[in-house]
Amino acid sequence: MPNSCFFLAADGGYFPYACLAARRILDVSATTPGFILHVGASEDDVQVARRLLKDQIALVDVSSFMAKVRSGFRDSGIAAFIRLFADQMPAFEGYDRIAYTDCDVLFNRDIGDLTNQQLHAPLLAAHDDYMYFLPTYRQKLAMQPGAPYFNSGVLLFDMSAVREQGLLERTRHVAMEKKLNDQNALNIAFEGKWQTMHPNWNLMSNYTKEYRFSQAYARHFSGSKPWGGQVGVELDALAVYRDLAKDTPWLSRFRQRIPFERGVLKRLGRSIDAARGLLLNDARKKRRAHYDGRKTHKMYAEQADAGAMAVHFPEVLGGFA
């Protein structure tokens, strides 16, 4: 079995959500070690975190480290770039598998089932359907024709390969040179070097109506947040958050705003994307109208079950044409 761990990264604003996400991982998992790398978390929130996580998650303040390296990155939240330094963090020196998860991901399955998967590439990641509605990303990022794009909300690194090939070092260089966000830089540096993750490990809430929170191994609230607008956030997921936060000062953030799930009207609007796309000559709506979520999910799941590298394929295979 590989020597594995997982981590989350957060600034002071997102630190409470990282703590709740980590608590959920502990509740549904066995013994995989976990870390929260943070910058700017308040002492009050850190004390709440220690009580909530019962010293089962290591809280690592990387403020000083990130202050030294932040020069050159685009002017955005520096916490988003913490994951790009996993190869330099002393806490991770003894691990050959490292899973990363965003703070807006809620796990339903043991994270050890993710970290113990067979890897044939430096990275395991999930295809990001949203980018296929915006295919110009390939030109903007100078990627190959047909190149797939992954979402960086849930990642599994083979650190031996990552270190040997200098892939995170290259990602940092790309991010600084091109002033890119972390996800775009990762996609450039790892192009052709990632394996398809089963979509249930990063079941994104935007553009997903066919698969729900209860079906997810890990639900990624990639659109509206459970502590924000709550559009597309299932009521059973909100209930989990309230249970996680019940003994913390963060509970009120997860109050159910209305007596039904928000986003119903938005989903109805997308049901007429074909007409809206023609009327407005909107390429994204036209592509979205042809998007077959079940077909695409099945395709990615089959690739993942086969341990396949993320392949270059025409969008028509996923129902996008």
The separation of the N and C termini measures 42 Å
Total number of domains: 2
Q: Please bin the fraction of helical residues.
A: 25-40%
What is the number of helical segments per DSSP (H or I, 4+ residues)? 14
Major sheet, described briefly? 7 strands, mixed
Order of helices and strands: EHEHEHEEHEHHEHHHEEEHHHHH
Shape: globular
Widest β-sheet, arrangement of strands: 3-2-1-4-7-6-8
Secondary-structure-derived class: alpha/beta
Beta strand count: 10
Radius of gyration: 19 Å
Bin the strand percentage.
15-25%
Mean pLDDT: 90
Question: Key features?
Answer:
alpha/beta, 2 domains, seven-stranded mixed β-sheet, three-stranded mixed β-sheet
Walk me through the structure.
This protein is an alpha/beta fold. The protein has 2 domains: 1-84; 117-200 and 262-321, no CATH class. The protein has 14 helices and 10 strands. The protein has helices at 15-28, 43-53, 63-69, 112-115, 129-132, 137-140, 159-165, 167-178, 182-189, 235-245, 264-270, 273-280, 283-290, 293-305, and strands spanning 4-11, 34-39, 57-61, 97-101, 105-107, 123-127, 150-158, 194-196, 203-204, 218-220. It has a 7-stranded mixed β-sheet with strand order 3-2-1-4-7-6-8, with helices on both faces. The protein has a 3-stranded mixed β-sheet with strand order 5-10-9. The longest helix is centred in the first third of the chain and has 14 residues, at 15-28. It starts with a strand and ends in a 16-residue tail after the last helix. The mean pLDDT is 90.
